[in-house]
Amino acid sequence: MSIADFRKTIWQHYRNCQRAMPWRPPVLRIRADGSIDPYRILISEIMLQQTQVARVMHKYPAFVRRFPNIKSLAGARTADVLGAWSGLGYNRRALHLKRCAERIMEEYRGRVPRDPAGLASLPGIGRATAGAICAFAFNMPVAFIETNIRRVFIHFFFTRAPRISDADILPLVAKTLPKKNARAWYYALMDYGAMLARAVPNPNRKSAHYAKQKAFAGSDRQMRGMVLRALGSHQRIPKRKLVATLGIPQRRFISILSSLEKEGMIAVSKNFVQYGP
User: Would you call 145 helix, strand, or coil by DSSP?
Assistant: First the structure.
């Protein structure tokens, strides 16, 4: 397929089937300089890491009402941030988000940086998330790859290749990226990728970066979430009560607490567990 035909296909689908989301225009106002609230984009992009869009759409509105700007998130208690995050999974992202806000207040005077390098220096933000924030918040033509984008390019351009690296895909992403309308183009790519996920066998299985997600039931990730949910709004809970409530074997319980404490999510004393640090 030619680049011109590819663009035409993607744009046509977007015109007919674009998805409405609370972090996209017209829900968020486009400013005179072409940007939209970068804080809200930052929230959405970190929430969308490894999490389905439907779950994020459910949690996002309440989270931004609770913490409407960088300052409010930076100054919030860890317990409040984790509580607002509950249900999204991968709870360390909530800590990354709070630490991002703290760094932005300290180093950028409360303004989300506009360049990929500055964004990628913040906690929990890699190259792909930095590129997405630049594109969606500031309409910058920065090439990046995420799950749906990868799916689209493998489907159209790598039908016969057995193992495709993102390094093979990224030049095509850059080649097809319009300089003046990056935001809408990426929306279009992602919407097409979401459609492909329902319509065809997953092209991403050809990706060199593909890994089947481990079962959630019985995993450490599930146990960690159970501990944080059990803490709820409590200031602290006796260890004995927590382990009895959750029914986690003692050795595994201690290991889970240790990992959560190392990440700064909880603080553990001799007899009690509480949100940390």
Answer: coil
User: Both 134 and 19 in a single domain?
Assistant: yes
pLDDT in tens, 115-149: 999 999 999 999 999 999 999 999 999 999 999 99
Q: Domain containing 229: what range?
A: 220-275
Write out the catalytic residue numbers.
45
Q: Are residues 48 and 136 in the same domain?
A: yes
The total of structural domains in the chain comes to 2
What gap in Å lies between CA 250 and CA 181, rounded to an integer? 55
The span from the CA of 213 to the CA of 50, in Å, is 10
| Whether residue 29 is found in the same domain as residue 82 | yes
In a domain, 213, yes or no: no
pLDDT in tens, 164-212: 999 999 999 999 999 899 999 999 999 999 999 999 998 988 888 776 6
Q: How far apart are CA 192 and CA 67, in angstroms?
A: 32
Residue 29 makes CB contacts below 8 A (sequence gap 6+) with 36, 37
Q: Are 237 and 230 in contact (CB under 8 A)?
A: yes
